[in-house]
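Marked as duplicate of an earlier ticket. Keeping the data here for the record.
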Amino acid sequence: MMPTHTHNNNTDTIKGWEFGGGVRMACTNVDGTFYAIQGSCPRCAFDLWKGDLIKDDPGFENKPLVACPTCSTIFSFQNGKYGPPMKRTGLQAFVGNLAKTATQEDSYYKREGICYYY
């Protein structure tokens, strides 16, 4: 078990872990509770550990959440359910729109993430 990468947003951290057999997880610790969700976005397959941790935004439920850095889809660390895409601007919005159109099947968007918390 080796940490692959760490993504820092000033005070919040999401770590990427890779286990045997190519299993990857995005992990975080919020207020003393450890959370883990599958390491790749169910929508675009990009690394969720590179995403944005959302824990204090009153506009979202089922926090903490991770927003995929590529397609901006939001996933709950508590239950893996997806939510509306995070609003982005500039280059991030352009790339996110490309990632959304690159998905071959719309039903793939409706997949939920596999999550664990302790």
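See parent ticket for discussion. DSSP finds two helices and nine strands in the chain.
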